[in-house]
């Protein structure tokens, strides 16, 4: 397995899947625009060797295709995870016969963990910098309205102040000056929980940020693992061997020996400063909010260090392909952690948290609800906004297939639940208040109860200029903007209920052409509505339950107060177009 960043780059060179760009490039907007064009075309990783203002090369787009993700990790981590889960029944309780049967797995598991090496065996400790530690780093600015340059692949290591349990997470970091950055700990992030405990003790909180290292380290930092599962243990499992660490003689934390950079500092208690805006993976700017500040004390780095970065924005970006891998890796563990959940998928096209779906067990009536509540109570899945559940064996990655199966079985009187005044992901602004919003559960289990229409034939809809089915049972319509007619969704329901009643789901958007593919549909719809305020249906209350009637209308238009959609600056687009031949010969 690949032990560090440069080993991976060498593999990509042999595979002709990385391009070295020696032309001078600016980390302010130019690198990001080059990256976006290349990833849109499914192109190679990019190694920029002549970055203005820095002596360090920059590498991006390392994981921008499924093929490169496979090269980075190979099949063994997924096979090992399946073996581990499959062996649980064999090894519990352990017997000599069972232990012998799983001897190969046990041998593999003995390789997992960390091992301490000397400073001479830790290339990350070749150079130490204390004065203006950030001054030479080629930190990227991705979008023109960003609050400044941001670390976009930081591996943030923290330890609980009392238990010393560790967390490794990826939280963007805005660079304020040569010595300070922001620390974007959103709700339900492990590093943030550790910091909260330090704040209660009024202590400065030590943080070490790694850049580079084994690709497995990046995967572990973004993996939605249970809160108490050590990320370094997951890293070792993906690596298939022990992770090398070294003691930092001037810092509280051990260092990842094969990282490119190790940035150490402290976060003061009860201090916040404005952070943002930032063009994020939802495809919009997240706005300015107060977050903690990291005050950097020193940086270790390799003498020939390579700076890794990624660019986020509208899907599909690198996080899409990493998300696919991580869900495949972790999916065998879901039934063990959540009994009754057979399959689970969160959709990278929406930024993950806005939409999730699961295939669940329905061995007795309404067991599906037990699975829904279990999913909402599990780690980062607590931030799921819209959850779709079925007991049918469908491929969750193929959303039209899932949606049709559910809508065939969906009974509106019993199978739609909307919960208001719940938490939202920090990046989701549809709830109108930071970290606040609502959730919905849509259920389709058992035998089909209706035949879904695939074509709309009931004539014009008043106020609607475009009508297009997305899949059977789901009709997408567009008319005036929310600004021009905020009550359009409610009016459509009232005026056209009879025409639309055969369509269980009707979605109002700004342009119905989003039906062209799954990515456009999911991104537009699920990042632009809050269930409690933007779902419309006739209903009646019976025994404290809302019985809905078809159709269900969702208003997924852009609304006042939503952040701006991400578009590159025109002069940067022109510059990159003009220089394209210079970059790529």
Automatic annotation (TrEMBL):
| Superkingdom of the source species | Bacteria
Coiled coil residues, start to end: none
| SUPFAM superfamilies listed in its UniProt record | FMN-binding split barrel, UbiD C-terminal domain-like
Where does the 3-octaprenyl-4-hydroxybenzoate carboxy-lyase-like Rift-related domain start and stop, copy by copy? 115-315
Gene3D superfamilies hit by this protein? UbiD C-terminal domain-like (3.40.1670.10)
Q: Which Pfam families match?
A: UbiD (PF01977), UbiD_C (PF20696), UbiD_N (PF20695)
3-octaprenyl-4-hydroxybenzoate carboxy-lyase-like N-terminal domain location is 9-87
Residue ranges annotated for the 3-octaprenyl-4-hydroxybenzoate carboxy-lyase-like C-terminal domain, each copy included: 321-442, 474-549
Looking up NCBIfam families in the UniProt record yields: UbiD family decarboxylase
- PANTHER family from the entry? 3-OCTAPRENYL-4-HYDROXYBENZOATE CARBOXY-LYASE-RELATED, 3-POLYPRENYL-4-HYDROXYBENZOATE DECARBOXYLASE
* Name of the featured protein: UbiD family decarboxylase
Q: Which organism is it from?
A: Chengkuizengella axinellae
